Amino acid sequence: MTDMETPEAPEHLLDPGSSEPLHLQLRGHLRAQILNHSLPPGTSLPSEAQLQVRYGVSRSVVRQALGALTDEGLIERGRGRGSTVAPRREHHRLVHRTSGLSAQLGSTGATVGTEVLSLTVQDADASTAVLGTPQVLALERLRTADGVPIAVIHTWLPAPTFADMTAESLHDASLHAVLGEQFGVQITSGKRQIRAVPGDQELLRLLKLEASSPVLLLEGTSFDQDGRPVEVFSTWHHPDHVVFDIDIQREPSTLPAPPPPPIRTDGPETIADRARSLGAELIRFADEVTDEGH
């Protein structure tokens, strides 16, 4: 366990003249350090008195800030032991795998929930033209893990193929599992892109994020066992609760292969000549040994 250093003189990190209350400024300052791992899990925070000195604020301001961080689950407070940075509640997603978020979270023991926000038929546009149908089934879902919102998922499917899909069949269910069980479609390959983007007001509301918070966007197209495109999706992930993992492998060597061993071209006559020469050397060696013995 490490400790957060506390200077003896106050630091000018908060702005008393700002319209934002001091306790929110202090909470934001500590929160940023926790989320960017400047204060890793297990770090002991200074005492309330030390935080008062460091930031030049009252004890009530410190207590309000620490209380808010506790409510967020970012720190743990105990009587007589101060405050420590709580273990991160992170869920890891292997983005190079074809398995969906629901299956990956479920395999870790998390309780996965799925709320269907909407399921409609729309005309295809440039972003969904790869599906090859004039109309697409547009599906919007909110995914939770252990009751915490972690992702908003927009998916587009070829309407004729999945016309019988219902919102009820997707409640608290994996879309890929439904595709396989009800329609015989298996996702076997795909293309993926990852980027950080700003979240709009509705997205931030669903993920319970503050205004102007960035989100992690995973976009892609998935193909079935016959190589047909069957899914276009965009998934916005909560940046504090989801981590993208990528397995890497060493690339095949680009060095030229070693040359093959030379092929022997000795014919019968050449071998016979070498045998006669070796025989003659053995006779000379035997004569020398005999002469030395006399």
From TrEMBL:
Residues 1-20 are annotated as: Disordered. The keyword Membrane does not apply. Pfam families: GntR, UTRA. It comes from the Bacteria. Keywords: DNA-binding, Transcription, Transcription regulation. This is GntR family transcriptional regulator. The lineage of its organism: Bacteria, Bacillati, Actinomycetota, Actinomycetes, Micrococcales. GO terms for molecular function: DNA binding; DNA-binding transcription factor activity. Signal peptide: none annotated. It comes from Arthrobacter pityocampae. InterPro entries: Bact_HTH_transcr_reg, Chorismate_lyase_/UTRA_dom_sf, Tscrpt_reg_HTH_GntR, UTRA, WH-like_DNA-bd_sf, WH_DNA-bd_sf. One of its GO terms (biological process) is negative regulation of DNA-templated transcription. Residues 20-88 form the HTH gntR-type domain.
